[in-house]
Amino acid sequence: MSLTQAAASFRVFQFEAKLSPDVLSAFAEDAVPPFEVLRDEPLAGWATPRFLTDAEISEETCHAGKFLHLSLTREERRIPKALLTVYCRREELRFMKEKGVNALSRQDRQAIKEAVRKQMLPRTPPSLAGNDVAIDLDRSLLYTDAKTDKQVDLLAERFAKAARTALVPLDAAGAAQRLFNVRTDELAPASFTPENNGDFVVNDIGLDFLTWLYWRFRTDDALFELRPGSPRLAVAIDGPLSLVLEAQGAFQIGLRNGTPVQSREIKSALLGGKKISSLKLFFTLGDDTYQASVSAPSFAVTGLKLPPVDKNRDAAATFVDRMAYLQAFSDAFHALYGVFLRDRADAAAWQRTVAAIRKWLPTMPVKA
């Protein structure tokens, strides 16, 4: 599972109210059914972190420190596309021979496909997939490796059913409002390039943040005091990077290998009005170092490399240690976002920042 793998991937969600003391019973009532009952329609339900169909949800199997550790499992009979094509073609040829025709109508092809699918499904082995879920009971936060909209929608549906509270993604807009009381829809669009007259502007605060962070890193100002008296956070940036602008020319470009952070290509893209949508971050916080790729506007984190933990402890203790590091990275990232938002939400301060970036961009040093 991704939260426990060497390179973790996750998104963060918040929920409105603390969960009831017997919430595990609610998750157990919505446990994943045995795949022997699986028929045509996909099934889903909660499982323990031990394996994807383990429905023995209890304090012993799912409680680790302040966390509930679960899996949201999906079961489905999925016929391989190539195999379905072979069986359909065989039936089409047989049908044409019986009818004495050389071609089939669209309706005939569809009817044959449905008949073949209905016949093959009961004999198709079940396909299992799951998303790792860690619920912080103290802070009303949920961490999951669910990435796609379909996975997130299913997670939100099943979590609301069991926990009786909704999930709110701490993406760029959600984190701004819920953690820092900043309404992003009330902020005017920002253009960082002097070459752009404002006709084409990517209006996304997550992209603004990553582009601002890149500017801070390139101008040797990437040390941040996140809280008074706490160790300063040192930030470095590397590729691969992605930049976007839905206007003329290429909407999205990706830069990797070599020195993309200092390349002519990234300077050209930024001058053309593109903003950074994903990059690789390196955090140094005290004695600990972290490395991950971050995407906006979702603030999805992938490939997070954490400081080492003692793997000789039991599984629950090791999980708690890893989650402590994962949360330290996530908290530092959100605190860094807060530093940006203090600037972004202050009209006068933001105007000075944009002017500084516009002045710097044409003179930005690059490597050939």
Layout of strands and helices, then pairs:
Layout: E1 7-15, H1 23-29, E2 43-47, H2 59-62, E3 63-64, E4 67-77, H3 81-99, H4 106-120, E5 126-136, E6 141-144, H5 149-163, E7 167-169, H6 172-180, H7 205-218, E8 223-224, E9 233-244, E10 252-255, H8 264-271, E11 275-285, E12 288-295, E13 300-305, H9 315-344, H10 347-360
Antiparallel strand pairs: 1-6, 1-7, 1-13, 2-4, 3-4, 4-5, 5-6, 8-9, 9-10, 9-11, 11-12, 12-13
- Let me know the average pLDDT: 92
| Portion in beta strands | 15-25%
- State Rg: 25 Å
User: H/E order of the elements?
Assistant: EHEHEEHHEEHEHHEEEHEEEHH
The coarse overall form would be: globular
> What structural category do the secondary elements indicate?
alpha+beta
Uncertain ranges: none
Kindly report the oligomeric state of this protein.
Answer: single chain
Largest sheet, in brief, is:
13 strands, antiparallel
What is the terminal separation in angstroms? Answer: 41 Å
Number of domains: 3
Per DSSP E runs of 2 or more residues, the count of β-strands stands at 13
Number of helices: 10
Helix share of residues? Answer: 25-40%
